[in-house]
Amino acid sequence: xxxxxxTMAQAIIKFLKAQYVERDGVEQPFFAGxxxxxxxxxxxxxxxxxxxxPDFRYYLVRNEQAMVHxxxxxxxxxxxxxxxxxxxxxxxxxxxxxxxxxxxxINHLPVLLLPGDIFARRNVAPVLQQLELPISQDLSVNxxxxxxxxxxxxxxxxxxxxxxxxxxxxxxxxxxxxxxxxLALPQDVQAEAYDYPTALFAKRVWHVPRVRPDEAALRxxxxxxxxxxxxxxxxxxxxxxxxxxxALRAFVEQTGIPVGETQAGKGxxxxxxxxxxxxxxxxxxxxxxxxxxxxxxxxxxxTTYDDFTTASKTAFQNPDVxxxxxxxxxxxxxxxxxxxxxxxxxxxLEALAAALADWQVDPEYRAQARAFNxxxxxxxxxxxxxxxxPLPSQGEVIGAVNEAAGPRDIVLCAAGSLPGDLHKLWRxxxxxxxxxxYGYSAMGYEIAGGLGAKLAAPDREVFVMVGDGSYLMMxxxxxxxVQEGVKLIIILxxxxxxxxxxxxxxxxxxxxxxxxxxxxxxxxxxxxxEPLAVDFxxxxxxxxxxxxxxxxxxxxxxxxxxxxxxTRTTVITIQTDREQRVGGYESWWDVPVxxxxxxxTVQAAYEAYIAARQKERYxx
Length: 620
Known about the structure:
Elements: E1 3-7, H1 8-17, E2 19-23, E3 26-29, E4 31-36, H2 43-52, E5 58-60, H3 64-77, E6 83-88, H4 92-95, H5 98-106, E7 111-117, E8 151-154, H6 160-172, E9 180-186, H7 187-190, E10 193-197, E11 204-207, H8 215-227, E12 231-235, H9 237-241, H10 245-255, E13 259-261, E14 276-279, H11 286-294, E15 297-301, E16 322-327, H12 330-333, E17 339-342, H13 345-355, H14 363-384, H15 394-404, E18 410-413, H16 418-425, E19 434-436, H17 445-456, E20 462-467, H18 468-473, H19 477-484, E21 489-494, H20 499-507, H21 536-542, E22 546-550, H22 553-565, E23 570-575, H23 600-613
Helix pairs in contact: 1-2, 3-5, 3-17, 8-13, 10-13, 11-14, 14-15, 15-16, 15-22
């Protein structure tokens, strides 16, 4: 057997360079490079290997959590057919990646994590940044990755890389199991040499299959659809991941079944398609939530049915409602006691279309969906041009950004009040035009995620919309964007704190306690003093961005035009009125209220909460 002597770290990078992925006859390299920060736990191992392999691009980032967000966003815009590697040192560098790993796993996005680890040979333990435990010497902080990784391994010998790398690729390229994969690399073993078989480094193509559902299940599903009078599709992220938007459009135009979209599924249909009801659930449109309430059959496509989609199990109120779920994951396909169609969204929709070639909904039902679509567009237009003052509303800011964006451009967000408003209001014209991380809703994802989206789609403008709360948590990847010559347009909304949770707190009777950026008041001892003066423009400028301060919607529109003409990352700051909110539309979210309180507002909120909970259902 032919061999080549390499360190384990060199072997890992050489292997990753040879991995390709193929779907529908299109073949491409799976890995697009490595993001990282070097420390004593990886500089002489993975760091040295990357230095010897300049064709495997290395990106120097500023925060380990942020780099995993960047990798996750890159994978999402790449339809999970490309990925980035993330390397960190041991200790805090490694544990910083845990939140990012959770984001990737919950959103089913392939990310390979290579955290440094403690010495496998142990003789110099405890090493710097090692956590000692009295129960075992076989644990490190990297064991914390286990619950947020789809595959986890620690390579205590250099030859263990041979089998571990194949397991990592199996998971990363799996439509069902993909997510964060963690290979913990002891710093001594990274640098150890081994005679690896040269066959390990041969080009290897991983085929991503389109799994077809069971034929008998397809027949039963077609019969359920034929018997329905008020069917509704819930389009999730699986529609976009499987490249099924054209198949979905053909299916709904053939059958007339209307579509409500989850956060991950928004863009499954263009916003102005007559069967598109827009957002569904807690952050949904009026039409989507009313048709969900009355639906007798719900067809979930590539959705996990989180509590925002189901409005905490209150969305579907028809006592006879049934579910058909199309999903590559058996776990999600079987939710809500559904008839499961375990398979790829595109091929399953094509098969259902063939089985329903002579069937469509009642013309009046189709017309009802069209009327809801048109009515909602009028409501969006009203909110876009509210002319609220003296500070503009967040809805008006969204409107200005939407009108500035091109048909293929991307808006990206993750947390705060923006996701709810964007889900309702953003007019999506392209399947990648709306990028929300809402599986984990991680504050700080926005700018780092924008970097990943732009790396994956350099021909699209990426509009990052971020609140002041998220910005203050993780803005430093602006430096990385400037370093790499990657242009982002960042709209930083200053609403004086955590507006989303402030509104939630008010609805729970707590009046927004602890959610505003206010100074400590010496008279009360509480955080109810003067507003904090944070100079966001100066901060963004110090990180290397071009900065524009907007005060009005007219200013914002001019700033957006200037930003589009810029060649480097631009940050536009604007203050908004946090109390001018976009309303709820026939939806509810279960957030428990204190059962006992001396505050009358909390007591009243608790009574309303108990009443609202009566609508929660088990779908059996």
